[in-house]
User: Which sequence fits this backbone?
């Protein structure tokens, strides 16, 4: 410990009139906090203001008010004023910058696990008077590397040779600044092979940090609006506003107010051109991730099942699910969307009787064989809860005579050859 103390004190160079931020990185239980505390006690008398902030990770992650309380601690300690109030994280950040810049200070941030914590608590070097020292302890070396930059590469233009990779990352961010900032922090300091690996991984696995932050808007929704949001993310994105409202109202939701709330919270968009309901790709992925995550190892319990061209991974998951489980136990499933004939309706329909809460089905029948299987099996299997049935490319001229859906509100049949619904019915 004595040797380590001397190394840190030497690196701090308290006799020099510059600003230094020193990181202490290592595994949990390795003595980082003890080392920082001893150094703090030894040199703090040399500074006009000082603050030792413990448990940054735990406090900031415990609640939305965590970072604000840490900012308040820094201000109260450094200014020796217990009456300071901080109204918001944004306010706290600017208060530190404004009120501390003329003081030579020593600040220790212990157990940092996210670059955002550094940006809100110690920000840029110009926040502090020359001669100030900042000590940061963390288990994640990347936090220390990334805080030296605000944007990718720490410069205005990409490093030579990284231009193509940069374009791929920017394309993945799809205009979402939050995603770009998280990616910038993650990729900073990594070599070309690590960049290539990261870009490939992004195509397969959601960017966790971005999704967690985007999810804050979802968490604040009322329960019925959460259900509407998940229906849009998994099933209804791309449909017109009126069709979306019709589907949601058929399922018992107050759809107009719900969509308005989601739009106000920037969770969805309504196109001025064609009035279609849209959603940023990362917000869509966040919603789908919420559904998957509820039973990550039991996909047959997911509340919504979807297969389309853009979700090949989930398609494989569902194929495995229905092959292994025959859709047994899917009592929680509320919505199903299968397009392009990727899954045999025989398998799906066989499991319908288990889906007691199923309220929405959208299926592309694909070919005559699948339509035949649908006709021969669907009648006794329709769940009583079903409110909306959407069939595409249905090749028969009518539905089976025994077709029963007592609580069905909407039947949508697009690009179908139907002439009458069933015996005694008319085409509509």
Assistant:
């Amino acid at each position: 410990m004595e040797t380590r103390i001397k190394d840190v004190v030497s690196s701090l160079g308290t006799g020099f009139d510059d600003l230094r931020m020193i990181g202490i990185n290592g595994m949990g239980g390795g003595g980082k906090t003890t080392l920082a505390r001893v150094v703090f006690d030894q040199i703090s008398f040399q500074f006009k203001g000082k603050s030792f902030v413990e448990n940054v990770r735990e406090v900031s992650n415990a609640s939305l008010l965590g970072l604000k309380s840490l900012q308040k601690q820094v201000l109260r300690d450094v200014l020796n004023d217990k009456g300071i109030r901080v109204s918001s994280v944004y306010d706290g950040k600017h208060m530190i910058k404004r009120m501390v810049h003329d003081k030579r200070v020593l600040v220790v941030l212990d157990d940092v696990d996210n670059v955002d914590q550094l940006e809100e608590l110690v920000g840029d070097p110009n926040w502090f008077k020359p001669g100030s020292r900042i000590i940061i302890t963390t288990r994640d070396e990347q936090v220390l590397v990334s805080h030296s930059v605000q944007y990718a590469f720490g410069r205005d233009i990409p490093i030579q040779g990284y231009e193509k990779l940069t374009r791929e990352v920017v394309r993945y961010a799809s205009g979402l600044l939050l995603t770009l900032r998280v990616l910038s922090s993650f990729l900073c300091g990594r070599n070309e092979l690590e960049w290539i690996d990261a870009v490939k991984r992004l195509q397969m696995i959601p960017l966790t940090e971005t999704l967690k932050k985007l999810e804050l808007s979802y968490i604040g929704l009322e329960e019925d609006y959460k259900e509407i949001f998940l229906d849009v993310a998994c099933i209804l994105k791309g449909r017109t506003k009126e069709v979306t409202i019709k589907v949601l109202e058929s399922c018992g939701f107050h759809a107009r107010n719900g969509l308005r709330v989601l739009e106000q919270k920037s969770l969805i968009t309504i196109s001025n051109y064609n009035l279609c309901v849209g959603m940023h790709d990362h917000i869509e992925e966040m919603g789908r991730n919420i559904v998957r995550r509820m039973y990550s190892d039991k996909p047959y319990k997911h509340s919504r099942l979807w297969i389309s061209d853009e979700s090949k991974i989930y398609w494989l998951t569902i194929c495995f699910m229905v092959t292994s489980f025959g859709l047994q136990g899917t009592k929680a499933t509320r919505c199903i969307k299968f397009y392009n004939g990727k899954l045999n309706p025989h398998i799906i329909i066989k499991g319908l009787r288990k889906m007691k809460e199923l309220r929405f089905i959208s299926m592309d029948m694909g070919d005559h064989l699948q339509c035949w299987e649908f006709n021969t099996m669907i009648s006794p299997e329709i769940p009583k809860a079903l409110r909306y049935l959407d069939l595409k490319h249905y090749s028969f001229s009518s539905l089976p005579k025994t077709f029963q859906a007592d609580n069905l509100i909407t039947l949508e049949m697009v690009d179908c050859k139907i002439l009458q619904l069933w015996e005694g019915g008319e085409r509509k």
In short: The chain is about 45% helix and 10% strand. The chain has four domains: 2-146, 152-205, 206-294, 297-428. The first helix runs from residue 2 to 12.
